[in-house]
Amino acid sequence: MNIKDLQYYVSLTQLKNFSLVAAQFHVSQPTISAAIRRLETELKTQLLIRANPHLPVALTTTGIQVQRHASQILLEHQLMCQEVAHTTTDQLVIGMPPIIEINYFPRIASQLPQALFSQIQPISQGSLAALKGLKNGQLDLAVLAYLNEFTDTTI
Fold first, then answer.
1. Cα angle at 70 between 69 and 75, to 5 degrees?
2. Any bridge partners for residue 49, and if so which?
3. What is the CB neighbour count within 10 angstroms for residue 63?
4. How far apart are alpha carbons 36 and 141 in whole angstroms?
5. How do strand 92-96 and strand 58-59 relate by DSSP bridges?
6. In this predicted model, what pLDDT tens digit does every residue of 71-118 receive, in sequence order?
7. Among residues 140, 91, 139, 95, which one has the least CA distance to residue 117?
8. What is the pLDDT of residue 69?
């Protein structure tokens, strides 16, 4: 399975138009059509209802399932790329609320070897934003100061 084919497919499920997807990716419309055919062939199922080329694209029931999985695969692919990029930069990106960054982080940082301290990139943000950054791969570590219960089940 080709990541680019999944990108085309997810975009097509959002834009509902082959020409718009082709323009978004700077490719020809037949390129998008070929990608969708490859997916359908590989999965041995029809993903789109091809009734009238002048109407927006409609998804089959299977097409909806594939869209959900493809979106998750693309998200995981993006996270993998970000994590790999972080490991090659020798930087540790830490998100933390401003109060922690100002009052507590300097005390902790003063205990670190100078060489390690220079590799830390602190990002000042609220706890929920830091949690989101951690989940989407923008942060390597998050220090949270949140008093309420987290209701996000993906944590």
1. 100
2. 58
3. 23
4. 38
5. unpaired
6. 999 989 988 887 777 677 777 888 988 888 888 888 887 887 777 777
7. 91
8. 96
3-state secondary structure the chain: CCHHHHHHHHHHHHHCCHHHHHHHHCCCHHHHHHHHHHHHHHHCCCCEECCCCCCCCEECHHHHHHHHHHHHHHHHHHHHHHHHHHHHHCCEEEEECHHHHHHCHHHHHCCCCHHHHCCEEEEECCHHHHHHHHHCCCCCEECCCCCCCCCCCCC
Exposure string of 104-136, with b = 16+ CB inside 10 Å and e = fewer, is ebeeeeeeeeeeeeeebebeebbbebbbbbbee
Closest by CA to 9, choosing from 28, 29, 33, 36, is 36
- The length of the chain in residues reads 155
For the entire predicted model, the pTM comes to 0.63
Burial class (CB in 10 A: 0-12, 13-18, 19+), 92: middle
